[in-house]
């Protein structure tokens, strides 16, 4: 039976999923909803199965009104809306998917509420007979599935590392991020989490720097702490499915990270108002007002491609260490994905939207086609062997592949 989907948020990731699902035979209707109704209506005009609508993601009634009768809610909105959309999915008994999990309404209680979600959310969704997969883009998402695939090949696991480097610079347009600055800059400011010696602990953003040599990057790069879901969800499931992993980290590097670190040190990422000429204003609000937005429409992306790129290099490395047949080993899994020009040729989106949106879109496809049969709420590392095999097979068709390298380590 064909499915009806509600996509909340038509930014970089939501629009990529909409484009992918518009071609999916088992999808009959896609409701693209955003607070910006013009953005939603743009995709109604561009795609065949889409109906545009306006939604207030902070209002449960607004979300429920659109969600009644849908089979799947894809939450591509900022994480502060997660709690409302979780509740809407449960209320209308629709399957649920997001790009980043957790409940973000109170940063000081973020970890506590995320763990509570993992412990108790599963039962709520199980009782409702529905499935919620949280954190389904590239990182988290593709990275989690790749971690589980590598860990399953080991006898024991000790360390898991996810390392992202991004340096894609247009010739004539400066862009600090290829996704929303409204999400990126606060992420660069917030405390991070790592799983160390079997415990989830808080660290400072941009702390614990490490210089690394990464495949495809022409120089050693500085990688630092960055707030992300993976150490939390993988730490939670370390003993259950990750063979007792004791140390899990996420690090990020590149010009946007270096810029954000300086802005953080200067206080420009603060949301505490300061007085300027008799007016009170939060520094980050000024920053977000003047920061260039990433391209979203086909016309905007095409213009950047026509101008060319000054630099284009990026890397996603998933590193797992443990033992196999008594030997200590390291598995390095490098993700290959299309660059900007190829991504646009394939899907009319940017390279960043491609790897994130297509990875998320594959999870959407799995939910639409009943490939994922587990009920409850869980992150992608919980997917079983058959579900992961389906994901990787479909990812390869999209040009997203994994190069895996084994190395023996001294004990």
How far is it from the N-terminal to the C-terminal residue, by CA?
A: 54 Å
In the CATH classification, which architecture of the largest domain applies? 2-Layer Sandwich
Ranges with pLDDT <50 over ≥5 residues? Answer: none
Number of domains: 2
Note the total helix count: 15
CATH topology of the largest domain: Dihydrodipicolinate Reductase, domain 2
Q: Roughly what percent helix? A: 25-40%
Structural class: alpha/beta
Task: Kindly provide the radius of gyration, computed on alpha-carbon positions and rounded to a whole number of angstroms.
Answer: 21 Å
> Order of strands side by side in the largest beta sheet?
3-2-1-4-5-6-17
CATH class of the largest domain: Alpha Beta
User: What is the strand tally?
Assistant: 18
Average residue-wise pLDDT: 93
Name the CATH superfamily assignment of the largest domain.
Dihydrodipicolinate Reductase, domain 2
For the largest beta-sheet, the strand count, sense and barrel status come to:
7 strands, parallel
Q: Outline, from the CA principal axes?
A: globular
The proportion of strand residues reads: 25-35%
């Amino acid at each position: 039976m064909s499915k009806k989907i509600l996509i909340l948020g038509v930014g970089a990731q939501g629009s990529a999923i909409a484009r992918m699902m518009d071609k999916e035979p088992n999808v009959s209707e896609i409701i693209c909803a955003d607070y910006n109704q013009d953005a939603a209506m743009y995709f109604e005009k561009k795609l065949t199965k889409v109906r545009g609508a306006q939604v207030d993601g902070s209002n449960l009634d607004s979300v429920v009104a659109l969600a009644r009768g849908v089979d799947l809610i894809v939450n591509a909105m900022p994480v502060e809306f997660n709690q409302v959309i979780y509740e809407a999915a449960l209320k209308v008994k629709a399957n649920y998917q997001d790009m980043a999990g957790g409940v973000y309404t109170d940063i000081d209680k973020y970890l506590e509420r995320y763990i509570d979600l993992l412990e108790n959310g599963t039962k709520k969704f199980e009782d409702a007979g529905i499935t919620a997969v949280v954190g389904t883009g590239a990182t988290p998402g593709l990275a989690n599935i790749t971690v589980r695939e590598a860990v399953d090949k080991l006898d024991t696991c000790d360390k898991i590392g996810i390392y992202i480097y991004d340096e894609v610079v247009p010739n004539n347009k400066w862009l600090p991020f290829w996704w929303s600055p409204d999400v990126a800059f606060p992420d660069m400011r917030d405390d991070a989490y790592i799983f160390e010696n079997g415990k989830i602990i808080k660290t400072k953003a941009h702390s614990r720097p490490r210089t690394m040599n990464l495949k495809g990057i022409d120089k050693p790069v500085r990688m630092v702490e960055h707030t992300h879901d993976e150490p939390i969800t993988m730490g939670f499931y370390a003993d259950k499915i990750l063979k007792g992993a004791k140390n899990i980290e996420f690090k990020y590097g590149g010009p946007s990270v270096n810029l954000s670190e300086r802005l953080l040190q200067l206080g420009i990422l603060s949301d505490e108002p300061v007085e300027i000429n008799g007016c009170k204003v939060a520094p980050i609000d000024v920053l977000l007002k003047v920061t260039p937005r990433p391209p979203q429409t086909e016309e905007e992306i095409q213009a950047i491609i026509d101008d060319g790129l000054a630099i284009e290099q990026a890397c996603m490395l998933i590193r797992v260490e443990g033992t196999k047949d008594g030997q200590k080993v390291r598995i390095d899994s490098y993700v290959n994905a299309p660059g900007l020009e190829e991504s646009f040729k394939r899907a009319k989106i940017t390279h960043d939207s491609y790897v994130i949106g297509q990875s998320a879109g594959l999870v959407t496809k799995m939910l639409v086609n009943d490939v994922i049969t587990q009920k409850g709420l869980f992150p992608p590392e919980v997917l079983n062997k058959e579900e992961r095999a389906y994901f990787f097979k479909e990812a390869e068709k999209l040009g997203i592949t994994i190069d895996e390298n084994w190395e023996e380590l001294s004990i």
